[in-house]
């Protein structure tokens, strides 16, 4: 259509000019020697006349219409330059193939060039592309299906329209080409893979889609998605624990715990756990991994397992209370504490012998029918090993209980803190015995508890980001607090940018002298749960 | 001059059309889209290759959803009482194909329904659903894509030889695929919110999904001649509802419902072993929802009847009872046609209200819900005196039926009263020696 219009326009303008110039020539004293396309000639005052004026007016108006008509058709690039056949590019070179494409379609003024940085995103250089936007990453190396740069254009419905796309929309061939580059590692000209040597990583299991999102804490973008699980169905990665060289993830539905290298994020080993592995804890030297279990719909569980992390084999089975869930080794590596959700008690285990020392009740107003009303969910130990806190998620309680550590009894209840509904995971600040943080799943808050003052200092809310906050992790320097949000509640408080499916997020908060300051919410996968940091 | 203006008009016309070509929107496949019946396939066409699934589904409540005489009568009754404002609300879930294709007569007899509509929630409805699966607030937002690709939870499906293509969708193994019809808000009030009840519970965090209990896993062939797989799901989708009248696999369905209910909670009874005659005797009955991933009962909790029956007797001499039925088979509550009331009745159900008066699910504005959430319990206390000595038997039962006889009579379905059974969920007996 455009070529046809262009040809018509060209022919018509040419005809008109020739006609005008012929008129000029016929009236010019120098006859046909005058250049027939000489416009200057027609402006000669000696040859002005009504007919010529009309012809000129027609030509001018027509030219405007033609221009308008042509520009109304979007694909004007076909006129100026033939499309690049991206399928014939074997070796993708960033500066030669990717950046020019981004420059043409995205990194333009008012959009994503360095000066404009719409939504905080500049696509003017490889480094800037990898830096992402105010809201998170633009691309995830090796995972085009999770890269906004391409999913914006591949038919995935957007939640928030990309208003400035206009005629700069990427073609299918261009999107396919960008996907090739991303899935090949999104390398720059030096063949560097982005974030290949990231030192501070946050690992987030996405229970609803069988992968682990890896976030670079320094850049606060998702840098990788690692697929986990080997069953034909939903393996449901639930909890991650990390220490030094390795990280481990529990897979509920597969009955396995997978071990990964923290440097390469590649699978190293698998241990099979009877039943459904839940939470994990590592001994300080990383040699022992303790695994709690979920109960099934028809069977109550009262066992935890000790795994030798070198051989990835179960070495011990320890009988504890009913439905052991929260599990944590103290920092000196001498004791293991287990929160037993359906027997309302805490099991204390000697790590050296793997023997149960004592079961300590969390309930002093125990239910006469023996059923759990406190339902201790998660447990944490203060860095100096002097205190243990337990989240009591029972709907009649909704509190955090504080115990002091001793010999006999092994734990003594000293206080309790009412928090919002369904307190879930809990974490102390590393090397700080004063503060711990608790996610309140149904309450949609994060509680900041100050132990010396014995009070809940802050109940942090975030109406548009918190939706069933689940896991909590804190950076080694205590500067940042991270909260995973399932985003599966009836309200769906968090509206993702795209995907049209209710993916969850990880909220990043910075600890200041006075308060927690919200920094960023990063979209991850579906149903993010127990997250952990490798530094 | 004329030629020029003619040419100008043509050019402008062409230019405008050129613009329109570019702006042509893609097909919007949401709940506002209308489908044709021919867009969907009959379950019968699936039965050749999937006989096992077909047989299981044939005896399921998904198949029964548009063969349910109680539903039909209730719909017709509500259409009249709401002057037609009910519209196709019931069809949204009972026959998604009818709803999506506009085949939703206001009042009807089964013979009025198209054969495909009468298949209820058939294979094509569930296996062409795509995420997001959202809670329904009044009007359902199906994201349905009928066509050649049938989606499921098998991650490595065998390409079908021309019958259809197979797609993997992880949501088919998760509760969210059930959400659209099992998470309903009415007039801004969460009512039939089985999904949310589950989502709010620790079961969701554990990834114990709807399918774990209601579509149990087995080993077999998904299709005739296909590979043996260990992650197939039963398509009988057993819950607590039962079919009335003639329906395939009816005895198996009732047995499965009975089994499910018997493994849904824990009842604990506390009594003294002995009392003095005429002293006050207390019987404590605690119902603990420790095995069910949602409230007990759930869904249409305002129709459900789960209650405690207590009987203290010695031979034919009964000194105390609660949870017994009147001559019509109803509990002695406000639905009984008789004036007597059971003041000790422990009934786990609920009531819908509009402006403080009893109402229906479409017009309600508030509710009272006495169902038991996961990992919560309810305690019932019974106090009575036994005047004479001897060994007295205290029998406690937890009973359930999908709805009471009063409801059948209210919609004119008396002929099915004899088919309404009571399931015994728990039972315990104690002997108390009265001095």
Structural overview:
The complex is a heterodimer of chains A (535) and B (435). Chain A has 535 residues and is an alpha+beta fold. Chain A is built from eight helices and 28 strands. In chain A, helix 1 packs antiparallel against helix 3 (50-72). Chain A is elongated. Residues 1-11, 13-56 and 69-79 of chain A have low confidence and may be disordered. Chain B is an alpha+beta fold and 435 residues long. Chain B folds into two domains: 37-242, no CATH class; 264-434, Immunoglobulins (Immunoglobulin-like). Chain B has helices at 2-23, 44-47, 51-58, 61-64, 69-81, 89-94, 96-101, 123-126, 194-199, 202-205, 210-214, 250-262, 405-410; strands spanning 136-137, 149-152, 165-168, 184-186, 189-192, 217-221, 228-233, 266-270, 274-275, 280-288, 305-314, 317-322, 346-348, 350-354, 357-358, 366-369, 377-385, 390-401, 423-434. In chain B, strands 9, 11, 12, 13, 18 and 19 form a six-stranded mixed sheet that branches. In chain B, strands 1-4-5 form a three-stranded mixed sheet, with no helix packed on it. Chain B has a three-stranded antiparallel sheet with strand order 8-10-17, with no helix packed on it. Mean pLDDT of chain B is 90; it is low at 10-33. Chains A and B meet through helix 1 and helix 3 of A and helix 1, helix 10, strand 8 and strand 10 of B.
